[in-house]
Amino acid sequence: MSAEGCFQVKIRKSPTHKLGTRVELVFTVVQHSRDEELLKALIMIFNCGRYTLRKNKLAGDFEVSKFSDVQLKIVPFFDQYSIQGVKSLDFADFKRASDIMKSGGHLTPEGLEQIRSIKEGINTGRSS
Question: Do residues 121 and 86 make contact, with C-beta atoms less than 8 angstroms apart?
Answer without folding.
Answer: no
